[in-house]
Write a structure and sequence with these properties.
Length: about 375
Amino acid sequence: MRENPLVLHVLGARPNFVKAAPVVRALGELGVRQGIIHTGQHYDALMSDVFFADLGLPEPVANLGVGSGSHAKQTAALLVGLEEVVLEHDPDLVVVYGDVNSTLAAILVCAKLGIPTAHVEAGLRSFDRGMPEEVNRIVTDSLSDLLFATSPDALSHLAAEGVPAGKVHLVGNPMIDSLFSALPALDPAPVVARLDIPARYAVATLHRPANVDTPEAAKELVSAVLDVARQIPIVVPIHPRGRTRLAEAGLVDGPSVKVIEPLGYVDFLSLVRGAALVVTDSGGVQEETTMLGVPCLTVRPNTERPITITHGTNRLVTPALLPAAAGKALSDGAATPSGELPPLWDGAAGPRIARVISAWLKGDNLSPAAQGVRSE
């Protein structure tokens, strides 16, 4: 290893920024030289650039600006762009996050170039290969040199797939680190006033391919959301992905529906914190509502984050069951997590990851105790 090794972080979408911020900060405190590659997978400034400011991330060393497109076109553009940047900077380790196409492309580029990689949020599985994200997770974990798991079930999945235990570290969830850091700034009142919405409201975030990529699925989903809106006003920060399809299906501004542009990190979490209910198909929002104690209905047949159901406030629903489930959640009132919060979701995942990476760069291998992970 070189005397002053370089770590590059590849970020492409909102959840990547949120997970990376605590890791970048903690590595910086350990004196590790690092840089960020922003792929531009989320090309909307409100879906990416604002997160750099909200989360205190440094300016990227490269911005590929790949934008949207089919999975093939987007991944192809990412492969070409990432290869050029990685070759230019010659990193000692590349860290990838989550399960987006930027993550997959980076892991493939590095595998071909022989550059070591680390995957933050390894081992999550929905066991539904019809989800593009599930394919990305499996490929990424199979090629990574360091795997950072956010929950105990992830350890079981990786072991079942034959990943050597020495590569895997249970570190907790860096997304929760970011949430803890942001908590003092999370005030719903200014956002509610700016959006001119009632004090009691719901929030919906919807973009998964299974929900929005066909007219039939989008129509069923929008019909269910409009039924929920008859029970409580609902705010929908619209993701660029699926925007047109959902609008065509009838998701437009109305008396009880407010469709808005994407929000920055602090504004969005402030809105969620004050909500009576959240409807989503996002993975990260399931985790954030678990920590904030907000009732969450996830419109999917499965989740790669079952811990948000066993330890949190999340429930899986179909579009057909969504209105009734919303009615029950609203009548039950404020949610509380089921028992203890998930293990190691304590705001210290970033430093744990940083210690492992720093030790790995020096040729050491930290034991769980040295990482700060308590024994079970």
